[in-house]
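Human:
I keep going back and forth on a fold encoding question. Comparing notes only helps if you start from a blank page. Show me how you would write down a chain together with its backbone fold. Write it directly below this note and I will take it from there.

Assistant:
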Amino acid sequence: IQDYVLMNLYHKLFPFKAEKEDVEIYHKCLQLSWIKFNHVGLLVNVDYFVSFAINLMKQFHLAKLPEQKMEIFSKLIKNILITLNLHLGKIDGSIDDVLPFLVFVIIKSKPKFLSSNINFIQLYHKKPKLIEVNSDFVLLKLVKDHIRNLSHINLKNITEEEYSENCKKTVEHYKEVLQ
């Protein structure tokens, strides 16, 4: 019954106008849309995976139940771990391996409601105390904060001048969206 009620009230509970934090993160993702694999410390080009991951992030946003959103996000992390294992032979999936990959994927997906989705999961998950300690949910919040604060200092293989120039070009390209 709870799922039925939540799905029917979704359009009233989930903001359909981006919140301030959503806009900030979306703008930051647009500003950083030029980054490449090597800028986040990834050693392999996994373009084929990025389109799959972007699709998962779209599904994440469209899901109407918090549990569905987390299931999709967990699927994304699982596929990142599989990809890391295939390309790098890394099986442990430490945060140091997963975080850069996840940051890259989320920047490339340019989510318009990342913060609102996180808040929705926190507010309406069936097990609110468990979701707060769920490692995938903690990682999702960490990635959001990491993206918000990302600068040339956090990136690899790029100077401050290159970072500034790339951001300037991207802002110019997206100037209508970023206003």
